[in-house]
C-alpha cells in the first residue's frame, strides 16, 4: 500500500537515547512514588482522622469505573460506614445563573463560622460530560475552597445519571466519616438529577430569582413540590422589592401543594448571596426543620427509605450493566436487533430470546 511508504505520524521511528542528565535513580524514584497506592485500611484510618487528601483519594477511587478498583472501593466505604450518618444532608438546586455557587460560598462560609464542617458535592451529569461548569464553580467558591473546615468536590464523572448519583451517595458516606457534619449536594434544576438528589438528602432547597417566570427558570412543578424551602436570591439593589413580591407569590403557590409527609410547611425566604444577607435566616429555617423531623422521627424514616431505594437502584444498575456488557449477549443482541428490524421477529420475542439466554449463562 502506498501509505506504508509515507512517513505517517503513526509510523515508528528510532527513539532518542535517554540523556545522561536524567539519572536512572530519579526515574526510579518517580516510578515508585506513582506506585504507592494506599491500602483500604490506610485510607480508612486517614479519613477518620479528618485527612482531606485521603478523602479526595478515596472519592477518586469510588469514582473509578475500573472493576479491579471496585473491591478496594467497597472496602473503604464499608470501613467508613460506621462513622457516617452523623450529619445533615442538604440538597440545593436551581437553574444555571440563579446563583448556586455564589450562594454555597456564602452559606458554607457562614456555616463554618458557627463551627460546622461543610462538604460540598455536585451532581451534574451534564458538566461531567462537557467539563463545563465545574471549573467555574470551583473558582467562584474561592473563599470556601481555602477554608480549613470545608471540602469541595466537583461533579463525579460518569455517563449515566444513575452512576453519578450512586457515586455521590458513596462520597457522602466518605465525607461524613471524615468529620464533615453538613453535606451540601448541588445540582442543576433542569433535568432529572434533582429527583436523584432528593433521594439522598434530608432537606431540599430550591433557589430562585424574582421576576423570571417559572417557564423561563425551567423549574418544573414537581421540583417546587419537592422543595422544603424556596430561597429567592439576588434580593439586593433594585431587586429587593421584586424579591419581596415574589416571596408573597411563592408562599401563596406553596399553599396549593399537598401537605408533606414530614409534617413540615415549606418556607419562602429571600437572600443576597452576593451581599451575604439573609443567610443566617436560611440556616435558622433549616435548623427548625431538623428539630421537627427529629422529634417526629421522620428524619430516620426518610433515611431508611432512602437506603432501601438505593439498594434497589444499585441492583437495577448492576444487572443492566452486567447484561449489556456480556460478550454473548452483545453478539445475540446484534442478531436479534436485525431480526426485529427486518420484521422477522417481534420485539417481545427478541427480548425473550435475549433474557432466556442471559438466565442460562
Ligand atoms: N446581584 C446579585 N448577583 C448575584 C447573586 N448571586 C449570584 N449572583 C451573580 O449571578 C451570576 C451567576 O451566579 P452563580 O453563582 O455562578 O450561579 P449558578 O450557575 O447557579 O452556580 C454571577 O454573575 C453572580 O455574581 C446575588 O445575590 N446578587
Ligand atoms: Mg454554579
UniProtKB/TrEMBL annotation:
Family statement drawn from the similarity comment of this UniProt entry: Belongs to the SIMIBI class G3E GTPase family. ArgK/MeaB subfamily.
SUPFAM superfamilies: P-loop containing nucleoside triphosphate hydrolases (SSF52540)
Protein's name in the database: Methylmalonyl Co-A mutase-associated GTPase MeaB
Keyword entries, A-Z: Hydrolase
GO MF, one example: hydrolase activity
EC number: 3.6.5.-
Pfam families in the record: MeaB (PF03308)
Amino acid at each position: 500500500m502506498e501509505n506504508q511508504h509515507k512517513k505517517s505520524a503513526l509510523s515508528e521511528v528510532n527513539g532518542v537515547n535517554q540523556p545522561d542528565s536524567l539519572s536512572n535513580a530519579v526515574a526510579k524514584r518517580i516510578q515508585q512514588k506513582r506506585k504507592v497506592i494506599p491500602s483500604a485500611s490506610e485510607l480508612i484510618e486517614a479519613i477518620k482522622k479528618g485527612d482531606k487528601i485521603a478523602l479526595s483519594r478515596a472519592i477518586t477511587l469510588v469514582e473509578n469505573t475500573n472493576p479491579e478498583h471496585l473491591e478496594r472501593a467497597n472496602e473503604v466505604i464499608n470501613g467508613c460506614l460506621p462513622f457516617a450518618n452523623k450529619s445533615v444532608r442538604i440538597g440545593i438546586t436551581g437553574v444555571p445563573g440563579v446563583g448556586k455557587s455564589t450562594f454555597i460560598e456564602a452559606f458554607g462560609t457562614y456555616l463554618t463560622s458557627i463551627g460546622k464542617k461543610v462538604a460540598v458535592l455536585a451532581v451534574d451529569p451534564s458538566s461531567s460530560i462537557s467539563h463545563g461548569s465545574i471549573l467555574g464553580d470551583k473558582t467562584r467558591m474561592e473563599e470556601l475552597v481555602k477554608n480549613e473546615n470545608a471540602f469541595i468536590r466537583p461533579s463525579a464523572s460518569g455517563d449515566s445519571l444513575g452512576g453519578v448519583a450512586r457515586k455521590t451517595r458513596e462520597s457522602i458516606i466518605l465525607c461524613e466519616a471524615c468529620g464533615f457534619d453538613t453535606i451540601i449536594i448541588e445540582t442543576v434544576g433542569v433535568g432529572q438529577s434533582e429527583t436523584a438528589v432528593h433521594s439522598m438528602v434530608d432537606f431540599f432547597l430550591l433557589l430562585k430569582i424574582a421576576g423570571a417566570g417559572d417557564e423561563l427558570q425551567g423549574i418544573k412543578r414537581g421540583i417546587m413540590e419537592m422543595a422544603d424551602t424556596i430561597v429567592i436570591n439576588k434580593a439586593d439593589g433594585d431587586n429587593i422589592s421584586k424579591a419581596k413580591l415574589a416571596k408573597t407569590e411563592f408562599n401563596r403557590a406553596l399553599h396549593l401543594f399537598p401537605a408533606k409527609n414530614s409534617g413540615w410547611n415549606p418556607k419562602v425566604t429571600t437572600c443576597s448571596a452576593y451581599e451575604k444577607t439573609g443567610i443566617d435566616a436560611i440556616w435558622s429555617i433549616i435548623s427548625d426543620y431538623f428539630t421537627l423531623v427529629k422529634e417526629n422521627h421522620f428524619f430516620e424514616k426518610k433515611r431508611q427509605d432512602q437506603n432501601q431505594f438505593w439498594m434497589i437502584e444499585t441492583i437495577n444498575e448492576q444487572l443492566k450493566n452486567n447484561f449489556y456488557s456480556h460478550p454473548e449477549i452483545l453478539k445475540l443482541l446484534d442478531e436479534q436487533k436485525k431480526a426485529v428490524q427486518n420484521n422477522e421477529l417481534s420485539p417481545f420475542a427478541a427480548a425473550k430470546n435475549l433474557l432466556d439466554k442471559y438466565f442460562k449463562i
